[in-house]
Structures are given as structure tokens and as C-alpha cells.
Amino acid sequence: MLSKNSIIYQIVTDRFNNESDNLFNEVVSGDYNAKFSGFLGGNFRGIINKIGYLKLLGITHVMISPVQLSDLYHGYLIKEF
């Protein structure tokens, strides 16, 4: 239930974290711009691994961006099949 004190954090799954908790290290190594043009490998397990961290920040709700078959990392441009 949302209240006036709710803090909602939007997560783009592919960009947030992966199951190995090393997505940040992957992003900052090598060619940063080239890596951001494609998929980075974030997943649901990576989100679950960060629940404690989100709670520490005071986050009360999480909104996950669409997870659809797509050629783009954010999931909003759904691929037809």
C-alpha cells in the first residue's frame, strides 16, 4: 500500500545488478560507451541480492521496468514474434 511516506525506486533490470553482484565492475571496465549500447546482463537474482541495500536506503516499493522480448535493454520496445 502506498502512503505519503512511500519511496518508490524504479529498476531497469538489465542495468541494475546481476546474480554475481559484479555488474558495476563490468560497466566501469573497458569501453564504457560500447558496453551501454547493448545488454549488460542484469537479472532478477541481481535485484533480489540487493533488497537489503534498497531497504537500507529507505526504499519501500520497487517498480521494475518491462521485461519483454526486445532488441533493447530497457524492455519498452517489444519485439514482435
Global shape: globular
Largest sheet: 2 strands, parallel
> Helical segment tally?
5
Taken in chain order, the helices and strands follow as EHHHHHE
Q: Widest sheet: strand order?
A: 1-2
Give the tally of structural domains: 1
Backbone CA Rg: 14 Å
Unreliable spans are none
Number of E-type strands: 2
Which structural class matches the secondary elements? alpha+beta
Percent helix: 25-40%
Task: Provide the β-strand percentage band.
Answer: 5-15%
Q: Overall mean pLDDT score?
A: 82
The separation of the N and C termini measures 36 Å
Tag the structure with descriptive keywords.
single chain, 81 residues, alpha+beta, two-stranded parallel ribbon, 5 helices
Task: Please write out the topology.
Blueprint: E1 8-11, H1 13-16, H2 23-28, H3 32-35, H4 44-49, H5 51-56, E2 61-64
Summarize the structure.
With 81 residues, the chain is α+β, with helices and mostly antiparallel strands. It contains five helices and two strands, in the order βαααααβ.
